[in-house]
Structures are given as C-alpha cells and as structure tokens.
Design goal:
154 residues, mainly beta, UDP N-Acetylglucosamine Acyltransferase, domain 1, 7-stranded mixed sheet, 2 helices, 19 strands, 31% strand, globular
Length: 154
C-alpha cells in the first residue's frame, strides 16, 4: 500500500501548517524551501488538483484559490537567489521573494514555469510549456516563452 496517497499527503501538509481546503488532490509534488518559513506559506482552496512532479517553492508563498488545476511537471518559483551570501553576483542580484497566486478557476498546463510575484487571473488558462513572467489577466489564454496572450475568454 502506498502511504503517500493523496488524502494522506493533504493531511500531512495540514499538520505541517499548510492551509488546504476540501476535495483537494495532491499527487507526487515536491515542496522546496520550506526550511525558511515552513509550510504555512502554502494556501490551497477547495477542489484543487496538483499533478505529478509539480515543484512548489514555498519561500515566498503560494496561494491556489478554489478550483485551480496545476498540471504535471509545473514549476512555481517564489524567489530568486544566486547563492550563498558572499557569492560574487549577490550585489547585482540580491535575493528577492514574492508570492505566486493562481486565482479561482485557473488552469495551468503541463510543464509550465511560473516566476515569483506572478498572479494568474480568474478562469485563465496557461498553455503547456509556457514561462509566465508577469500578471495574467482574468479570462485569458496565454502560451509560449515568455507567455503571451493567445486569446480572451468570454
């Protein structure tokens, strides 16, 4: 029996401090950088789905509102850090962290990369393989590298 079944995973994340709603499915996701602030930076609404091999960087915080789908192999990054404090590039690229929010009803396709500080608007679709570097407006479809608006939804 696989003790990492989705209901057990949800229960464990709640016990670690994450806020997770009802009817949530979390498959084999990887949570990184929890050592900074713990799992309290993870907020998942009701009826969300997080697919296999999704990487969630908890440092800057992640909020998935109700009815959000994050497909397989998506990478959600909430911070940028070139390395240790004395790294020669630290003065040019100081550490930054910012929350990522996927608003209600948004859908993230497979193998997407979402960078820190991004908000995915309500009922928006992010196409497979896209790299999202900035705000995605409500009810839009974005795709490509970097992500560009393909069409607006009604």
């Amino acid at each position: 029996m696989d003790i990492s079944l989705p209901p057990m995973r949800v229960w464990i994340l709640r016990m670690l401090g994450a806020t997770i709603g009802k009817d949530v499915v979390i498959l084999h996701a990887l949570f990184v950088n929890a050592y900074h602030y713990g799992y309290k930076t993870l907020h998942v609404g009701n009826r969300c789905f997080i697919g296999d091999d999704v990487l969630l960087d908890l440092r800057g915080g992640i909020t998935l509102e109700d009815d959000v789908t994050v497909s397989a192999r998506t990478c959600v990054l909430t911070h940028m850090n070139v390395g240790y404090k004395t790294h020669p590039l630290q003065y040019l690229y100081p550490t930054k962290e910012a929350q990522v929010v996927c608003e209600r009803g948004s859908y993230i396709g497979a193998n997407v990369t979402i960078l820190s500080g991004v908000v995915i608007g309500k009922k928006s679709v992010v196409g497979a393989g896209a790299v999202i570097t900035k705000y995605v407006k409500e009810k839009t479809v974005v795709a490509g590298v970097p992500g560009r608006v393909i069409k607006n939804l009604k």
